[in-house]
Amino acid sequence: MDLIDLLILCICFIFARIWWRYWSVTGSGPKNLPPGPPGWPLVGNLFQTILQRRPFIYIVRDLRLKYGKIFTMQMGQRTLVIVTSSELIHEALVQGGPTFASRPADSPIRLIFSVGKSAINSAEYGPLWRSLRKNFVTQFVNPVRIKQCSWVRQYASENHMKRIKRESLENGFVEVMSNCRLTICSILICLCFGARISEERITNIEGILKEVMLMTTPKLPDFLPILAPLFRNKMKEAIELRKKQMECLVPLIRNRRAFVEKGENPDSEMWLPCPTAPPDPTETFAFTVVMKNPLKAVILSR
């Protein structure tokens, strides 16, 4: 190897070193982000996180000791600013609420289940989100509604105890987590429809919701969209699961609408099971269901 070849090799090595150092730095720079752990070019800290094979919260806990209460992680094409202090969280989400109120772009799979970011937990900050939030607060979580729906909690608690006793007698043990999850799901579904939904239906809905949760967990294409073609089967599975979800929920919505239009019927599943504590006559229920042929939001009054 002559002197020119050696010189070219050294120059290439220096440029490669500079390039690696430039693309591996996390935080600071023109965006003025908090410093964070150095990553790899193009993928940032993504593969470093995956290779650790630990829950992400444990990784954050360790990084906090080194980089402080706020730091940056570059996960592929997504930049995450991790905040681990209650004071900083309050400053960001309460004092600077409008600035940080919106949400980042969703993956194609999440867009299927969030109906194009039209759900309360996915909508961007704006008129739609404020309308959904207002409906949720006024119809679900205000003290009057909570008191009126005490029968839901009683109904769910009774079924919960029956399941625990039955499992204890049949199996000799009780699956605490699955029973608690089903009970909470029962309360939410009965509140949504304003009626006592059978436990068989609730079990079916809870199983589908669990599948949806697993389907929408972050995957590689969420951070590296260039890999999306390799996950086409996941998109097909998500579409099929969405159809299954609609086939489960749409009949309940239609039954509720038919029940309200025809009046009280004690034989109907949608009958209010607590006549001693009737709801406010002005009570309304809003159901938003979007399918391939979208069903518009329907406001149903009792």
From TrEMBL:
Taxonomic superkingdom: Eukaryota
Molecular function, one GO term: monooxygenase activity
InterPro entries, sorted: Cyt_P450 (IPR001128), Cyt_P450_E_grp-I (IPR002401), Cyt_P450_sf (IPR036396)
Sections of the chain in a coiled coil: none
Species in which this protein is naturally found: Salix koriyanagi
Record's protein name: CYTOCHROME P450 LIKE PROTEIN
Organism lineage string: Eukaryota, Viridiplantae, Streptophyta, Embryophyta, Tracheophyta
